[in-house]
Amino acid sequence: ETGVTQTPRHLVMGMTNKKSLKCEQHLGHNAMYWYKQSAKKPLELMFVYSLEERVENNSVPSRFSPECPNSSHLFLHLHTLQPEDSALYLCASSQDEGMNTEAFFGQGTRLTVV
Amino acid sequence: AQKVTQAQTEISVVEKEDVTLDCVYETRDTTYYLFWYKQPPSGELVFLIRRNSFDEQNEISGRYSWNFQKSTSSFNFTITASQVVDSAVYFCALSEQSDSWGKLQFGAGTQVVVTP
Prior knowledge:
Oligomer: heterodimer
Strand content of chain A: over 45%
Number of strands of chain A: 11
Shape of chain B: globular
Strand content of chain B: over 45%
Largest sheet of chain B: 6 strands, mixed
Helix content of chain B: under 10%
Shape of chain A: globular
Distance between the termini of chain B: 38 Å
Radius of gyration of chain A: 13 Å
Order of helices and strands of chain A: EEEEEEEEEEE
Structural class of chain A: mainly beta
Structural class of chain B: mainly beta
């Protein structure tokens, strides 16, 4: 069982819908991340949270809104998405946000926008 | 600009063959870390190894081995005597001191297909 759990595993939503992705880590880590994995593109870092504060936002469109209510939970709120936002969204956590710390990933949410 | 290049999109081998995955990186930092992750069909990325820029010793872990050469900015990964369970996408990644917050910059990945 992975230490990072993502729900749902699959999501299909219309462009006018609002949905949320959930990530939970049971590892006692202080940093959490959202990555986007599109077909034929490298994984892209979207957001970084350290001790529940957002410390990095890689110019992500405002239709993606993260929320980190505590160090164990991370959400990605979605609204008015576009078909090109269809991708695998991966959550990760690490002990801290340092460059030498390996990240532990969840299994991802496969999002399809129709 | 892409800082991590994995030129091989897909490699197909027959079980028990060795397979080497290439990774070339680009950085101006003297302090950085390199990683390899495995992504099986289930989706999650599994950490395999971390290497810092000051440690050029090659490493072996079971059937896995890594060859880090700063002179050529390469960090190649070899699977010896491949097995069907090795079928996955393998990602090389770079984390730079000048880039804050432990950002991992990933290569495009190499799909490894091992057939019986």
